[in-house]
Design brief:
single chain; 405 residues; mainly beta; Maltoporin, Chain A; 2 helices; globular
Length: 405
């Protein structure tokens, strides 16, 4: 009993909250094994719980959610919903004004449909034909202000991503002609990175930054590959005005793969890096704010599904209007494509675009209503002779969230 006392005292000071999101959606989308879009209806239930502990110098937050997704027509031979568990944990702290640290953990495990898989894998163009997925990434960072102008930070991160069981849901037939190649499965991926950063405050409105990142990639399974990449970037952040900020970055990436599993697959050993970002937060009235963020980037990208490494261009933009305390409307767009000179053999998926427009209304402290739509399409290299966008995802949804907050 005595050993439980510290835990009881700790939880007594914790802030425990929970919520339940209930969502109905309908539209057209591919399935994991069939890239041809078809009409579907679905219901989603997502209960979650958040535990938060705070002290004068630290803050710890643990979030866990369970996603239950029921789709008609079904994509498996069973009647029940798909289960996906999501866990997030974060600890931040500081000692005085100079030393700060942060530790983060994110994990996803369970069953995914096409829409959820595109969200879990982020800006991955070619989606693997997998139903069961596990991802976990952890990071730790520490920062120390050397002087009023100089600051040194360092971050260590680890990523693990894999699938298990059959890559094709039970009860489905073989993919039709025009689907991704048979190799479009998710390999077991383990990445580890170290990223030191040095910042220099040139003035009250300007900050310069030097970043160096070392990353080791280890892919096993459908793609056999070990690779090491080193990035060096110079950045400049400038406060254009009170409500507008500009960020610029330029650098170079050097990568090597001593023993690639398939020497015929393209491999870029040297790639330029560049990024421009403009962020704004403009008050229109005392209760209305206009927030926007737009960025364009060129980066070195290792595609774990296709097993290739190429320069990649991507854009990301969003515009939001907030009318406190009840209304929020947002429009966002994301797009990415490989920027190599020639398309890959057999014209696999190298390009994607996605967009969304949610409208949220907070009824009161405990109820939130959201109405919106999502869109995405995928296609081969922009210079491919048969270039066209397909695998269309176009859906509308209505969600109601009940929360204890």
């Amino acid at each position: 009993m005595a050993t439980l006392l510290p835990i009881v005292l700790l939880l007594a000071n914790a802030d425990l909250t929970g919520s339940v999101r209930m969502e109905a959606q309908a539209g057209e989308a591919p399935t994991i094994t069939n890239p041809v879009s078809s009409f579907y209806e679905a219901a989603l239930l997502r209960p979650d719980i958040t535990l938060q502990l705070s002290s004068p110098t630290t803050e710890t937050r643990v979030f866990e959610a369970l996603r239950l997704f029921l789709r008609r027509p079904k994509i498996t031979n069973r009647e029940g919903p798909l289960y996906l568990n999501m866990l997030q944990a974060e600890h931040t702290g500081h000692s005085g004004e100079r030393l700060k640290w942060a530790f983060r953990l994110n994990s996803t495990a369970g069953e995914v449909d096409y829409v959820a898989l595109s969200q879990v894998l982020g800006q991955q163009a070619t989606l693997p034909d997998t139903l069961n997925i596990f991802t976990a990434d952890a990071s730790g960072s520490i920062g120390y202000r050397l002087t009023r102008q100089w600051r040194l930070d360092s971050q260590v991160a680890v990523l693990r991503r894999q699938t298990w069981g059959s890559t094709q849901p039970a009860g489905t037939s073989a993919p039709p002609v025009g689907s991704p190649p048979a190799g479009a499965s998710l390999p077991t991926e383990t990445d580890a990175s170290l990223e030191p950063r040095l910042e220099f405050a040139m003035s009250r409105r300007q900050i310069g930054q030097l970043r160096v990142k070392f990353t080791h990639y280890d892919l096993a399974g459908s793609t056999q590959l070990e690779a090491t990449e080193v990035e060096a970037r110079l950045g400049w952040r400038y406060q254009l005005a009170r409500h507008h900020e500009l960020q610029l970055e330029a650098g170079i990436a050097v990568a090597s793969a001593p023993q690639p599993s398939d020497p015929t697959r393209p491999w870029t050993s040297l790639s330029p890096l560049a990024k421009v970002l403009l962020a704004s937060s403009l008050p229109l009235t005392p209760t209305t704010f206009l927030r926007s963020r737009a960025s364009g980037e060129v980066l070195w990208y290792l595609d774990p599904v296709l097993g290739v490494a190429l320069p990649r261009g991507q854009i990301d933009a969003n515009l939001a209007i907030e009318v406190n305390p009840s209304w929020m409307f947002e429009v966002y767009v994301q797009a990415a494509t490989d920027i190599s000179r020639h398309p890959l053999p057999d014209s696999p998926i190298e390009t994607f675009i996605s967009a969304g427009a949610p409208l949220r209304y907070r009824v009161n402290r405990n109820w939130l209503v959201e109405l919106g739509g999502r869109y995405s399409q995928r296609g081969p290299h922009l210079t491919a002779p048969d270039f066209s966008l397909g695998q269309t995802e176009l859906l509308g949804y209505l969600a109601v969230t009940a929360t204890t907050r």
